[in-house]
Amino acid sequence: MVLFMVKVSIILPVYNVEKYLNECLDSIVNQTFKDMEIICINDGSTDHSLAILNSYASRDERIKIISQENAGLGAARNVGLKAAEGDYIFFIDSDDFLYLDAIEELYENAVVNDSDVVLFRYTREYDIDRENNNYGYNLDDIFNMHGDDYKEFTFNRKDLKIHVLNMYLSVWMKFYKREFLNQYDDFYFTEGIAYEDGLFHVKIFLRAERMSHIPKIYYHYRQNPESIMNNSSYNMDIFKVVDSVEEFLIDNDYYGEFKNEFDRYKIIQISAYIFSSGTEDYFQKAREEFLKINLSPKHIVPDICMNYYNLVLDSNNYVEFLNNYYNKELERKDLEIKNANIQKGNLQKENKKLKGKVNSLKKSNKKLESENSKLQKTNSLMVTSTSWKITKPLRQLVYFFKKHL
Description:
Elements lengths: L7 E7 L6 H9 L6 E8 L5 H9 L5 E6 L4 H11 L4 E4 L5 E2 L3 H12 L3 E9 L9 E2 L3 H4 L30 E4 H5 L14 H11 L3 E12 L14 H15 L7 H13 L2 H4 L2 H11 L12 H11 L4 H66 L2 H5 L1 H13 L1
Parallel strand pairs: 1-2, 1-4, 2-3, 6-9
Antiparallel strand pairs: 4-8, 5-9, 6-7, 6-8
Helix pairs in contact: 7-8, 8-9
């Protein structure tokens, strides 16, 4: 029986992650913040994940293990939400890990600001390489603030409209007040599909009255090749997620306000999986959805996604899309080479001009050196002449009067 106040509930879905689970659990149990429960949902693991969980639970009473048949990430998170008793909720994926001060600092910020949600930043981790990078919400330009300025500062969707439907949708990028989540009966994850974070994120951003931010990295996201995010068989699920977001916006009277942002979101999300899916079905569905969008100058879409959008509409099938894409890439490369050659030619002309100037300066310098040599010779003859010696007293007298009169 847990004998401490539960201030934070960590929700950790686990499925066949024996390779990474120890590092993840170590980063949780060794947090500087101690008043928390660690809810581990074993989602039908067939490797040694459950044994690892049991080993940690035997040494740390804060760990609670719930085992179920494999039902997917969304279902596992929902089980964790129902079991949570903490004042605040934090989700972590079992192949990722945290900085050891993450929960303490997120909790302090949430309490000080009475925040419904706290945002923060993360870094990406790879099996091969551990990058030194910084991803997530960059609000400095929006609020003209930095670092400690955010300690006692809150905002809501009206202040950062573009982020309501942005690319940072992951559930683990936020720290949630459970009381806020419990005000609604639909803060749960759609089960049986991938990318289930999307709609949850949109609901959070639209409903939170008080959000705060810490411009600091707390989370290490691992690009796991075995993750569901890298399984192309789930790519078609993105259309279900996009539809569910659109339906929510319409049903809750947000669609008019966020029409342009939704179109941007739709293009970005669908474009992200065109190549990884590699199927005609995905292409045709993408084309069908893109045809529904009427872009205007008010739409701000990343260049790469805008290119995919135009290429999809200009192609009748996936093979034609690939041909058009690679032809465009060849054109782009040819243009880069052409521009590079032009720049090279310009630099060569400039270099030639500079060489001409250098040669001219060398000639001028040589002439000056010759003249200087003549002057030195003349001066040498002058100072050794009889007349120069005879007039020396006179020059001294002139110098005296100049100095004293």
